[in-house]
Amino acid sequence: MNRRSSRWQSPAAEPATTDRGFLALTPERGTTETGTRALRQLRSSYLLGLVALAVLTVISHGVLLFTVHQTASDATVINVAGRQRMLSQRVTSLSLQLSEAIAWEDRDRVAELRDRLESAFALWNSSHLALIERDAAAGLSGRNTAAIVGEFAILDSSYRSVQASIEHILTASADMAQAGVLESIRASIGVLTGEVEVYLPRMNAIVGLYERESQRAVFRIELVAWAIGLITLAVLTLEYYFVYEPSFRRMRRQYQVIEDQNTVIERTENAIVLTDAARKIIWVNPGFTRITGYSLQECQGRSPGELLQCDRTDPSVVQQMREKLKAEQYFKGEILNRSKDGTDYWLDLEIYPRHAANGDLIGFVASEVDITAFRDAVQRAEAASRAKSEFLANMSHEIRTPMTAILGFTDLILEKPDAAADTESHARTIQTHAKHLLAIINDILDMSKIEVGQMKTERVKTDPVQIVEEVASLMRPHALKKGLDFAVDYTGDIPALIHSDPTRLRQILLNLVGNAIKFTDSGRIRVEVTCLQEQQQMAFRISDTGIGMTEAQRARVARFEAFVQADSGTTRRFGGTGLGLRISSRLAELLGGSLTLDSAHGAGSEFSVTVATGALEGVAFRELSTADSALLAAQHSHRSATTLLVSDTARSLAGVRVLLAEDGVDNQRLVRFHLTKAGAEVAVAENGQLAVEHVLSAAPDQRPELVLMDMQMPVLDGYAATRRLRADGYTAPIIALTAHAMSGDRDRCLEAGCDDYLTKPIDKQLLVSTCARWLRSHETPGHPDEDGEPVQA
């Protein structure tokens, strides 16, 4: 079973919830904002559609109400107009009945008929005026058409005649005793009857006009209703295509995305956990179940910490996670958990807070990746790296130890003035190839340090001109031997001192100049030195007139990868491991600069290297020329030529008691020979235990004044022996002799109590001068060397 999960710690005081909200499994803020915008747009679209429908509904309802009102108004007008005809006939009939009652002198009947006539006339008259004016108070709202107004205008004379006749009848009938009343009334009735016959057809025409106008109004309203209906249908159609259909498509896409996400979530090997705001599990994917062994039902309502807590989990990581989640912040870290079957495992955990649209916390989502196998692989790789380093260290020791004897005794042969010519030739051949082998070993060790990030550099006061001239002094003879011109040019002012690593700078320049000489058969080698003051860098350009490189070869080499040369033919013809440029490039970077290459086939190559100078304020500058370079080279050659004399005089070890702790017989003989030749009295101890006993058993005034301590010896190694001597109060200089040249070996020796560190094979001049320097330093504390700083071998 795969094992992945998280151990979340939920505070005991936090209650469980049963929130089953929408599972937003893409917690990134940008995704959430995009989803919120989409929902907002969808809501706006639906709201717009609903508003359109609401407006159309209100309009339809208004049209309906207007239709009802208009229909009722038209009916009232038609009824009133039709009633006018009936009222006209009634007033005529009542007038006739009134004249008969007067003739019969029936006063009661006259009074009754007169009241009825007066009421009918008042209603007829007011209705006529209301029809003309469309009196809203009478329920006759609206306006008459021009045709109806014209008809009323034609009818006006008849209306006035009828009005005058009835008013005369009513006035005359009020006094029956007056002479001629009956004849007067009958005359008015005659006029009334004639005018009513004119009034009634006209009124019928007006009623017809009202009816036709009402029909036209109803027709117009029907058209409006149909238009509203069609508009509503169009709006619904547009709403479907532009609101609902896009929404459906969006929902289909979102549903497909959710389906795809669910497929990924279901099939992924990683665990995904969803919790509520109280950090109680709501949902887990099958990957979580496969990893932990817990089903969804077993997880729901429980905190991940309660479910998966492990006594091996780092409490500080758990506390950091708690603080992040409490602050509703993102958390990422590596954590150890325990699965249902009790197996512990490591995972890379990411937890995101989930917020609602209003910003309230609704829960957390966690994505968990198993890194158990990865961590195991890292541990195996680290173990392999340690094994490699140990192997290289052992190889260094096993190769450097015999190389000390090979080179040392070869030097002794070459120093004999009476050595046969063939013997000297053979010895020089051995010496040349031994030094070449040693250079390869050094390159491999440096490359190993670079690969594991253990290459260390220092920043001390360094004279760049001295470094360049030392390199020129060493390499000029090789160039001259091949018939090549060798020149050093200084451009501009050169600082007297920079802060750099002189050993590594010298190594870079030796490598680049050596390459230039190797690949050049005729022409020149040129070293140009410039100070880039604004960039605070020293620039060194090494150019040659050698074979150069094609564009493809230059591109291949310019990456400065390990074991890479221009082509396989280069390796066969010129030799080499392909490590030099890679080492030089990395060293330049460690010194705050870089290495670049420019080359043309058949026209030579140019390597440019820069290193940081450090602050240049207050530093003295000097202007040098090619002549100055030649003079400096001559001076340096003179200093080199006098080194042997200095080592045998000014740095003499005459009468000094030296203890050599070394288990190798050949190295004992060689080192003892060099020290004895320098005048020292040498005692030998074959292991660290014997060395400690020799020092501590000697009388105080007979103890060794200096100890050369091999660090890898049987019984008691040099580290333990040095610590014991220092613990017992031995204060004289102890110089480590070791074939270990890996990163950290020097520091380890110094931490054990050694004063200095020399690597095998031992250089005889360096051996004697280092011993003399530390003896002098012991006699005069605070002055380890002439320059005031320790010398690193």
Q: What would you note in describing this structure?
A:
The protein has 5 domains: 30-252; 277-370, PAS domain (Beta-Lactamase, 2-Layer Sandwich); 392-450; 456-641, Heat Shock Protein 90; 651-779, Response regulator (Rossmann fold, 3-Layer(aba) Sandwich), CATH 3.40.50. The chain is built from 22 helices and 19 strands.
- Domains, number: 5
Q: Give the distance, in angstroms, between the N- and C-terminal Cα atoms.
A: 56 Å
Order of strands across the main sheet: 2-1-5-4-3
Major sheet description: 5 strands, antiparallel
List the helices and strands and how they pair.
Layout: H1 29-103, H2 107-133, H3 146-172, H4 181-267, E1 271-276, E2 281-284, H5 286-292, H6 296-299, H7 304-308, H8 315-326, E3 331-338, E4 344-355, E5 361-370, H9 372-415, H10 421-451, E6 460-462, H11 464-481, E7 485-491, E8 493-495, E9 498-500, H12 502-518, E10 524-532, E11 537-544, H13 551-557, H14 568-574, H15 580-590, E12 594-600, E13 604-612, E14 621-623, H16 626-641, H17 643-648, E15 657-661, H18 665-677, E16 681-685, H19 688-697, E17 706-710, H20 718-727, E18 734-738, H21 745-752, E19 756-759, H22 764-779
Task: Pick out its properties.
793 residues, alpha/beta, Beta-Lactamase, 5 domains, five-stranded antiparallel beta sheet, five-stranded mixed beta sheet, 19 strands, rod-shaped, disordered N terminus, disordered C terminus
